[in-house]
Amino acid sequence: MWRVAITIAGLDSGGGAGIHADIKTFAAMGVHGATALTCVTAQNTYEVREAQCLSPQLVRAQIMAVWDDMGIDAGKTGMLGTREIIEEVASVVGKLGFPLVVDPVMVAKSGAPLISEDAVDVLKRRLLPVAKVVTPNKPEAEKLTGMKIASVNDAEKAAEFIHKEYGTEIVVVKGGHLEGGEAIDVVYYRGSFHKFSTPRLESRATHGTGCAFSAAIAAGLAKGLDPLEAIKTAKQFIYTAIKYGVAKGKGHWPVNPTAWVEIPAERWRAYEELRAALEAIRKNAALFAKAIPEVQSNLGYVIDPRYAVDVNDVVAVPGRIVNYMGEARPSGPPAFGASSHTARKILALVGKDPNARSAMNIKYSPELVERARALGYKIAVVDRRKEPEEAKKIEGGSMKWVVGEALSQTGGTAPDIIVDLGDWGKEPQITVVGRTPTEVVEKVLRLLS
Ligand SMILES: Cc1ncc(COP(=O)(O)OP(=O)(O)O)c(N)n1
Ligand SMILES: Cc1ncsc1CCOP(=O)(O)O
User: Fold this and answer.
1) Could you tell me which residues come within 8 angstroms of residue 222 by beta carbon, excluding any fewer than 6 positions away?
2) Using 50, 70 and 90 to split pLDDT, how confident is the model at 121?
3) Of 177, 232, 294, 354, which alpha carbon lies 20 to 30 A from 428's?
4) Residues 6+ apart with CB under 8 A from 413
5) Name one GO biological process term (predicted).
6) Where are the domains of the chain?
7) Is the pLDDT of residue 75 over 80?
8) What's the rounded mean pLDDT across residues 4-24?
9) pLDDT classification of 369: cutoffs 50, 70, 90
10) Does domain 4-257 have CATH number 3.40.50.720?
């Protein structure tokens, strides 16, 4: 069943925070996202240039238009701008009664105020009592309580104070601004404290974290999750959104809420692509058998380079592709992390040319190189005997050196084949490179035909 979550928040023209972050989060969490826009900001990753708020009546009208049509399963507030808007939102939410998550946004990361000074008191006295959850960070919790927060213990005291003083059922004091290797969020709920923690990320992509986190809790509540379950999931969600942030802008980069669904989708796509390419090898098994070297072959494919971190993001064949009685055979179905050599080569390639996402090693022969030349393939020839000792000593250094050498011969973009002439104890090989495993298999087929 479709659930509806509404964001009552401002617009960030840079798309990193505000309603953009919220709607991306709702979509990633599988709920239908609706909006009641409060203010428009001319903003980017490093400053807020201008801001203008709508009338409280128009904010109410947006909420009512959604309510009268689809109903609202949960909501969240972000930038509310003025005391009049806060009063109107408190009044309408109080009447409709849907669970509301309040992100008590006061100041943008860039330092600009997002709420007028006289509105903070209205937020405390009018909005917090009708909210189910409030999600202050350290400076916001200090402003709401007048306390100094320097530890998890202080955060607990602040959370309990906010609940007792303003009546919000659940208080989440976020640990992002506290010190320590773990980012610990403290939750006060029904007289008990709960802690949710993730490793602290040293990331530049933090613009919109508060927005996406509160939206993720609202999405969980809209889906009917237990509040603690909704908060725990939101914590994992925001960890992923920060880790795979949008590397764009001169200031704090935007968080990436869609990483939550894009990464699993990418892994599935890569797996399916590889499976199809292995099918093509099976169909031409006798031909491919001629190209299997002593060390055997592997065919790998890395997920979208924006999301690739290590060999576990490269799908390949466990046990490699072998020559079994004159037929090329993948030893088993593809798996992530199944390759070491090919995976490291692909990671080195994609680090220099984002299109070079797939590769397969085949047997070296001068005839195959000649054939590649006749086909007009872009060829790089690497002599491993010239590899400096330092490169050999570094983990993954050899692959980087081979790839660097190869791409220096082809103007920075990947060649169709890298001819590795081998070294003592290292069999010469040809690595066929392409955008997809299907393209690689087609290139090998043309070479062998
Ligand atoms: C329109 C708008 N709404 C909210 C914010 C706050 O975002 P940010 O500065 O990234 O702070 P957190 O949401 O991460 O706490 C904004 N800048 N603009
Ligand atoms: C190219 C190469 N070099 C040594 S083994 C091998 C074949 C593929 O290895 P992996 O299965 O680790 O990708």
Assistant:
1) 3, 4, 5, 31, 73, 74
2) very high
3) 354
4) 353, 355, 356, 407
5) thiamine biosynthetic process
6) 4-257, 265-448
7) yes
8) 98
9) very high
10) no
Q: Please tell me the predicted confidence (pLDDT) of residue 309.
A: 96
% residues pLDDT > 90 (the chain) = 91
Q: Answer yes or no: is the C-beta of 41 below 6 A from any ligand 1 atom.
A: yes
**DSSP classification of residue 45:** S
Checking 431-434 for CB contacts under 8 A at 24+ apart, the result is: 431/345, 431/359, 431/360, 431/361, 431/362, 432/359, 432/360, 432/361, 432/362, 433/349, 433/356, 433/358, 433/359, 434/356, 434/357, 434/358, 434/359
Confidence of residue 321 (pLDDT cuts 50, 70, 90): very high
Q: Which of 207, 239, 255 to mutate to test the pocket of ligand 1 (most atoms within 8 A of CB)?
A: 207
Interatomic CA distance for residues 106 and 36, integer angstroms: 18
Residue with tokens 């299109």: 355
What is the DSSP annotation of 244-261?
A: T----SSSSPBP-TTHHH
Mutate to test the pocket of ligand 2, among 320, 423, 440 (most ligand atoms within 8 A of CB): 320
Q: What is the DSSP letter of 4?
A: E
Query: For residue 307, what are the CA distances in angstroms to 110, 152, 261, 268, 398?
Result: 27, 32, 12, 13, 23
Nearest ligand 1 atom to the CA of 207 is 10
DSSP 89-138: HHHHHHHH---EEE----B-TTS-BSB-TTHHHHIIIIIGGG-SEE---H
Q: Which residue has the tokens 């840079």?
A: 14
266: CA distance to ligand 2 center in Å?
A: 24
Instruction: Give the pLDDT score at 216.
Output: 98
Question: DSSP E strands: which ranges in 334-392?
Answer: 335-336, 358-363, 379-382
CATH code, 265-448: 3.40.225.10
Q: CA-CA distance, 326 to 186, in Å (whole number)?
A: 63
| Fold equal for 4-257 and 265-448 | no
Can you give the pLDDT at residue 361?
98
Cβ of 207 less than 6 Å from ligand 1: yes
Q: How far is CA 186 from CA 138, 174, 347, in A?
A: 11, 6, 39
Q: What dihedral angle (degrees, nearest 10) is formed by the CA atoms of 11, 227, 172, 129?
A: 80
pLDDT digit string, tens, across residues 146-175? 999 999 999 999 999 999 999 999 999 999
Adjacent-strand bridge partners of 299: 360
Q: What is the mean pLDDT of residues 409-428?
A: 94
pLDDT of amino acid 117: 78
* The predicted structure's pLDDT at residue 263: 98
pLDDT of residue 211: 98
Beta bridge partners of 33: 5
